[in-house]
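ok so I'm stuck.
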Amino acid sequence: MKLLAKYNRISLMVTIVVIIITGIIYYFTISFVLTEEIDKDLQAEEIEIFGHVKRDNRLPEIYRSEYLKISFTPVGRDSVKRHFTDVLVWDKSHKERELGRELISSVQVSGINYRISIIESTVETDDLIQVIFLITLGIILLLILTLMVINRLVITNLWKPFYQMLKQIKLFNLTDNSHIIELETAIDEFKDMNQEVTAMSLRVNNDYQELKSFVENASHELMTPLAVINSKLDTLVQSGELTDRQGTLIGEVYGMVSKMRKLNKSMLLLSKIENRIINEKETLDIQQRITDVINDFQELLAAKSLHLNPSLQQVEVLMNKEMLYILLNNLLGNAIRHNYVGGLILITLNQNQLVIANTGQPEQLKKDVIFQRFQKSADSDGSGLGLTLSREICEASGFNLTYTYEQSRHTFIIDFNRS
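replied:
not stuck anymore, here's the structure
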């Protein structure tokens, strides 16, 4: 949820609660004030009755109107407690009961006590309360709506620099050598944040360029001593007879030199892919490339008695030729290397994806680390960069590489249409 929507929701909820509470208080306050006014009118009528009785020593004429009714009832010597009460009275014109306010009192005429009932209709008062309440509520709602519109416009404008910075951060890419430019804003907090983010992007770019140069230079510099070591070993082998022990040691050195050369080549290639230095792309037939790689691995497949089951459709993709070979070589090589004797390899190719599944260790690999650099099993003699290279090649080509473990098979899936 966006900040503005969250703020508006909280503001609206608080406003509704406040309106309900204040509306209830407002309604009862108006009701109380108007009821007090009606009670004063009833008291005024009572005073007039007392004045008439004192002046003429008799009860006044019984008065009835649409909104005021006065009646007298003899009660003998019984006492009547003076009080106000709410009553329902019958309205003949509307033929329904309506709310009214009644004052009960008493007066003595010629030694006889009379109960006085003065009733005044409160229909107009209730209608007035409702009108006042509705008008007030309408004004409040209009005010809230106006404030919400103003807040949306004002807050959106105030947060505009933030969203501009956020857009720059999302588009920031080290490989493009891009920078986050400083924005003009009058908000101190946004100004400070923009300055810090801009400075951070510059530091990250500088660190990245230094690291990039270091990796490239280190890889190039390693090629020469490795070539020299390999040449010296060749000379040593050709110089004369060697003992079995010496031959074994030289063979081990050859193996380590070869491993270092592969590692160095992989690191240099990974650096080029990450920095998008390899840009040459062409339309390639994946079906044919897979067939070529399978032919290259025939001896290894036969050595482990592996059963290969390919199901290939003709699919063409736009990518670098060398990168496609490395990708297929890494994935199929892993499927062979980490399989057991007599195991199974399934290769499925269609217009949407390439799936390479193989039997192997009866446990799932850790999905969160298998694509990280130098992650490999304890019994692996690889460099630990194969899957990292494969993922980077897929990223650079617009593909998506994922891993699953189903039906006791380790499965790597390349989706050609990245979602």
